[in-house]
């Protein structure tokens, strides 16, 4: 079973990190490959970046079946062009945001910890469109730009752990969701700080892809 993990932004090092997280989550019967959306912005932060990235994401999903992939994962928490890609593609297309919300709901209410405030309306809009607003306690912006997660991981871990602790104190939630594909390395520390399960959308999407492929 082959799965293509598409990084909607053009930062190759981020693709490498996402693929590493996906392969860690995958079982031996799934082969994971990555693709960088070379014509996109270096990070997806808000609606404008998402619109710029959409054509490349849709094209990659369309092409994936012809290259032997059984499913595609859009590895941006905004679920960039997810609906359009599903319409265009002949294979299942999974967004890491939607996959993470589905997993988090199994614990009860969840809070999302994302990057910049500009991403909050996009995520809230997706949660509402998926019919999950009642399960979401809050979408919190950490104030960290996407690329800073790689550039200053010490500061990122400190900031995200503080956000996780605040969510545990204030949000009356039973789980946390990592609101960016680049946050996977920080999940264990956030769980330790908050005492709450922390869901990585990349891992959740890989698990969902495996379920879909085994059923088809």
Structure in words:
It is a single chain. Helix content is 48%, strand content 17%. With 216 residues, the chain is α/β, with parallel strands linked by helices. α1 (12-25) crosses α9 (201-215) and α4 crosses α9. A four-stranded parallel sheet has the order 2-1-3-4, with helices on both faces. A four-stranded parallel sheet has the order 6-5-7-8, with helices on both faces. It is globular, with a radius of gyration of 16 Å. The protein has helices at 12-25, 47-64, 82-88, 96-105, 120-129, 148-151, 153-170, 187-194, 201-215, and strands spanning 2-7, 31-36, 71-74, 93-95, 110-114, 136-141, 175-178, 198-199. β7 (175-178), α8 (187-194) and β8 (198-199) form a beta-alpha-beta unit. It has nine helices and eight strands.
